[in-house]
Amino acid sequence: MTTLTIMPAGTTIEAQPGTSLLDAIKAAGAQIMSKCSGKGECGACHLYVLEGRKSLSKTQRVENEKLDTIVGVSSKSRLACQTKLGEEPVTVELLSFV
Ligand code: FES
Protein backbone atom coordinates (compact mmCIF):
# COMPACT_ATOMS: atom_id res chain seq x y z
CA MET A 1 0.00 0.00 0.00
CA THR A 2 1.05 3.57 -0.54
CA THR A 3 -0.18 6.88 0.84
CA LEU A 4 -2.14 9.44 -1.15
CA THR A 5 -2.66 12.93 0.27
CA ILE A 6 -5.36 15.04 -1.36
CA MET A 7 -5.11 18.81 -1.09
CA PRO A 8 -6.52 21.32 -0.35
CA ALA A 9 -8.51 19.29 2.20
CA GLY A 10 -5.44 17.36 3.35
CA THR A 11 -7.25 14.01 3.25
CA THR A 12 -4.87 11.05 3.47
CA ILE A 13 -5.69 7.50 2.41
CA GLU A 14 -3.87 4.25 1.85
CA ALA A 15 -4.19 2.93 -1.70
CA GLN A 16 -2.93 -0.03 -3.71
CA PRO A 17 -0.13 0.69 -6.19
CA GLY A 18 -1.59 0.44 -9.70
CA THR A 19 -4.80 2.20 -8.67
CA SER A 20 -5.64 5.24 -10.80
CA LEU A 21 -5.55 8.58 -9.02
CA LEU A 22 -9.18 9.06 -10.08
CA ASP A 23 -10.32 5.84 -8.38
CA ALA A 24 -8.24 6.53 -5.27
CA ILE A 25 -9.55 10.09 -4.95
CA LYS A 26 -13.14 8.89 -5.34
CA ALA A 27 -12.52 6.13 -2.78
CA ALA A 28 -11.33 8.82 -0.38
CA GLY A 29 -14.69 10.57 -0.77
CA ALA A 30 -13.17 13.65 -2.39
CA GLN A 31 -14.99 15.44 -5.18
CA ILE A 32 -13.37 15.19 -8.60
CA MET A 33 -14.94 15.65 -12.01
CA SER A 34 -14.81 12.86 -14.60
CA LYS A 35 -17.14 13.60 -17.48
CA CYS A 36 -15.72 10.94 -19.81
CA SER A 37 -15.69 8.07 -17.29
CA GLY A 38 -11.91 7.98 -17.18
CA LYS A 39 -11.12 7.71 -20.88
CA GLY A 40 -8.74 10.66 -20.99
CA GLU A 41 -11.09 12.63 -23.24
CA CYS A 42 -12.68 15.36 -21.13
CA GLY A 43 -9.78 16.81 -19.15
CA ALA A 44 -12.06 17.42 -16.16
CA CYS A 45 -9.89 15.31 -13.86
CA HIS A 46 -6.85 17.56 -14.37
CA LEU A 47 -4.91 18.01 -11.12
CA TYR A 48 -1.45 18.99 -9.92
CA VAL A 49 0.96 16.48 -8.42
CA LEU A 50 2.76 18.27 -5.59
CA GLU A 51 4.92 15.38 -4.35
CA GLY A 52 5.84 11.90 -5.48
CA ARG A 53 5.58 12.55 -9.21
CA LYS A 54 8.39 10.17 -10.12
CA SER A 55 6.66 7.12 -8.69
CA LEU A 56 3.54 7.62 -10.83
CA SER A 57 2.90 5.88 -14.15
CA LYS A 58 4.43 7.65 -17.13
CA THR A 59 2.36 10.05 -19.19
CA GLN A 60 1.02 8.34 -22.30
CA ARG A 61 0.05 9.87 -25.64
CA VAL A 62 -3.69 10.18 -24.89
CA GLU A 63 -2.95 12.09 -21.69
CA ASN A 64 -0.31 14.32 -23.28
CA GLU A 65 -2.59 15.25 -26.15
CA LYS A 66 -5.45 16.14 -23.79
CA LEU A 67 -3.20 18.13 -21.45
CA ASP A 68 -2.07 20.18 -24.47
CA THR A 69 -5.65 21.46 -24.84
CA ILE A 70 -6.22 22.46 -21.20
CA VAL A 71 -5.75 25.97 -19.85
CA GLY A 72 -3.64 26.19 -16.70
CA VAL A 73 -1.47 23.17 -17.42
CA SER A 74 1.92 23.19 -15.73
CA SER A 75 4.81 20.79 -15.26
CA LYS A 76 2.86 19.41 -12.25
CA SER A 77 -0.22 18.57 -14.32
CA ARG A 78 -1.64 15.05 -14.74
CA LEU A 79 -5.02 13.60 -15.64
CA ALA A 80 -6.16 11.61 -12.61
CA CYS A 81 -7.86 8.94 -14.72
CA GLN A 82 -4.70 8.25 -16.73
CA THR A 83 -2.25 8.22 -13.81
CA LYS A 84 -1.58 5.17 -11.68
CA LEU A 85 -0.06 5.17 -8.22
CA GLY A 86 3.35 3.63 -7.68
CA GLU A 87 5.06 2.55 -4.47
CA GLU A 88 5.94 6.02 -3.14
CA PRO A 89 3.67 8.43 -1.24
CA VAL A 90 2.00 11.02 -3.46
CA THR A 91 0.40 14.40 -2.76
CA VAL A 92 -2.03 15.89 -5.28
CA GLU A 93 -3.95 19.16 -5.45
CA LEU A 94 -7.48 19.10 -6.83
CA LEU A 95 -8.21 22.01 -9.15
CA SER A 96 -11.96 21.76 -9.65
CA PHE A 97 -14.90 20.80 -7.51
CA VAL A 98 -18.21 19.26 -8.47
S1 FES B 1 -12.07 11.68 -16.48
FE1 FES B 1 -12.08 12.56 -18.45
S2 FES B 1 -10.00 12.95 -18.85
FE2 FES B 1 -9.97 12.00 -16.90
List strands and helices in order, with pairings.
Blueprint: E1 2-7, E2 11-15, H1 21-27, E3 46-51, H2 61-67, E4 77-79, E5 90-94
Parallel strand pairs: 1-5
Antiparallel strand pairs: 1-2, 3-4, 3-5
Bound molecules: FE2/S2 (inorganic) cluster.
Question: Could you explain the architecture of this structure?
Answer:
With 98 residues, the protein is of the alpha+beta class. Helices cover 14% and strands 26% of the residues. The protein has one domain: Roll (Ubiquitin-like (UB roll)). It has helices at 21-27, 61-67; strands at 2-7, 11-15, 46-51, 77-79, 90-94. The mean pLDDT is 95. The protein starts with a strand and ends with a strand. Strand 1 (2-7) and strand 2 form a beta hairpin. It has a 5-stranded mixed sheet, covered by helices on one side. It is globular and about 30 Å long. The chain binds FE2/S2 (inorganic) cluster (FES). The site of FE2/S2 (inorganic) cluster has 13 residues, from loops. FE2/S2 (inorganic) cluster is lined by residues 34-36, 38, 40-45, 66, 79, 81.
